[in-house]
Design goal:
Number of helices: 3
Strand order of the largest sheet: 1-2-3-4
Strand content: 25-35%
Number of strands: 4
Shape: elongated
Number of domains: 1
Structural class: alpha+beta
CATH superfamily: Ribosome hibernation promotion factor-like
Length: 120
């Protein structure tokens, strides 16, 4: 999985980049190597908003796009919440795809019965 980290009017420290790689490694093992993850960090400028640090994650998979957006007082906490939400979405997407694939397997009612003769 390819990870791109952007800071919208906010610098992204190297420590936070390392944490992003660590946190999203589990999701990277569950999706294709061709998947693209884009993390965007920003800070709300309004002092009336207590949860000013915002993390937005966009995961582009084959045929679908998953998004998560979380805000918190601290960028690390927002990142952790965002990762948990995205992990839930990836798990649900994988289960959906497995369910569809299981529906394509031949059912016993479609297979020829061994006891019947082919010539009638």
């Amino acid at each position: 999985m390819q990870i791109r980290v952007k800071g919208r009017n906010t610098p992204v420290p190297d420590a936070l980049r390392r944490q992003i790689d660590r946190r999203f490694a589990a999701i990277g093992r569950q999706v294709s190597e061709l998947a693209e993850l884009e993390i965007e960090l920003s800070a709300e400028r309004n002092p009336a908003i207590p949860e000013a640090q915002v993390v937005e994650a966009t995961l582009r998979l084959k045929g679908t796009t998953l998004r998560a957006r979380q805000a918190a007082r601290d960028a690390t906490q927002a990142l952790n919440r965002c990762e948990e939400e995205l992990a839930r979405q990836v798990k649900r997407q994988r289960e959906k795809r497995r369910g569809r694939r299981a529906g394509r397997v031949a059912r016993p009612s479609q297979l020829p019965y061994e006891g019947t003769s082919q010539a009638i």
